[in-house]
Amino acid sequence: MRRSPSSSDSAGRAPEAAGLVTSLTRRTGEAKIAGDWGRRAAAIVQAKVYPALDRQIAAVTELRPHAKPDPGVWKLPDGQAFYAGALAFQTTTTLTPDEAHALGLRQVAELEAQIDALLRAQGLTAGTVGERVTQLSKRPDQLYPNTDAGRADLLKALNEQTEAIRAKMPLAFRTLPKTPVEIVRVPPEIEDGAPNGYATLPTLDGSRPGRFYINLKDTAEWPKFTLPTLTYHEALPGHQWEGAISLESKDIPRVRQLGMGFAAHGEGWGLYAEQLADELGAYEGDPLGKIGFLQSLQFRAVRVVVDTGMHARRWSRDQAIDYMVEKTGFVRSRAQREVERYAIWPGQACSYKIGHTEWVRIREEAKARAGSPLRPQDLPRRAQAGADAARGPREHREDHLPLSGEGGGARRRPGCCCYQRP
């Protein structure tokens, strides 16, 4: 609540400089659509949008003195039942909050041990794993300058990594979408209130590529060793790849092509994509990149602990932030934004690692049932990128597993056709 008004404040801003206006002016110009669009849009922003933002700021300012320090929904009427339902919806599993918390703690410990071994191999032996990752994150050779030029170099590196991993995609997939992908900066005017990153699907007519937006308010939040994994999660073979396959599919309805899915499916796939990149050799000769990969998995396991901690175990905001900083080595500002997001979106933070755990479990069961070695392209053929079992709950994905190395004979269960975005 303390930071909300500043992210929406329109005071002192010329309407002509607002993103809504400049975007419309640019696009109408590029399309050669005649009209004084910039002036008309600026007038609407001045007369309608800015006053609405001022009312929003006033409402938040009025509510702020009454805000509670406890971030969890446990304090609300029927809060425990609400959170149990939110967790089930977001993960599409039957895990209880206590079971999810225990799973998160176990996975954090397992990943911490793996990261510890790699850090020691790099000569980083003093301090906790989180402290050593923090040391690595602050090394000058791992940082881009917090300038426009530094941000441009960071984005260039991410887009180059995307094209490099694209060349490996035929090793793992039969379906190879043609939709382009680009990685861009979160608009500076919304950085304070925006998440660390988010993605948008390409347009249906192909006029705009799929995009991943990265928050570059402070480039110190994105050390170089963490960036390859970010690329694999958000671009290829992660969200943009899975989304492009769905968009190009001829076998699913439009509502599913457009991303109406379950968080555990999509975010679990994003983490599975990181693992797949590792299995394809993306980190060969890059031990720091491998640390970044494991840190990414650990971060999602930490999310499970923090989300269940706040909403079911009455953790305070500071307790949640402290735990995330300790276990991941993130700078505090990044951990703070994460925790504040979880406070208003109960259960969603658990969908990533629990979804990944389910993807891996399903894959291993497919391999065991096949009775003969499976090629990566067959794991699983129908559900590998959501083309046929697109963005469904866990039990629906399982019904589309191949029973043989050729990827045929998928099991199906009637029904289970509800698709909606959390």
Describe the structure.
The chain is mostly helical and 422 residues long. It has two domains: 4-66; 79-352, no CATH class. Helix content is 54%, strand content 3%. The protein has helices spanning 4-8, 19-30, 37-63, 79-91, 97-121, 129-138, 148-166, 227-234, 239-248, 254-257, 263-279, 287-312, 317-328, 332-344, 351-370, 394-398; strands at residues 181-185, 197-200, 210-214. It has a three-stranded mixed sheet with strand order 1-3-2. α5 (97-121) runs antiparallel to α12, α7 crosses α8 (227-234) and α8 crosses α11 (263-279). The longest helix is centred in the N-terminal third of the chain and has 27 residues, at 37-63. The chain is globular.
List the helices and strands and how they pair.
Blueprint: H1 4-8, H2 19-30, H3 37-63, H4 79-91, H5 97-121, H6 129-138, H7 148-166, E1 181-185, E2 197-200, E3 210-214, H8 227-234, H9 239-248, H10 254-257, H11 263-279, H12 287-312, H13 317-328, H14 332-344, H15 351-370, H16 394-398
Parallel strand pairs: 1-3
Antiparallel strand pairs: 2-3
Helix pairs in contact: 2-3, 5-12, 6-13, 7-8, 8-11, 8-12, 11-12, 11-15, 12-13, 12-15, 13-14
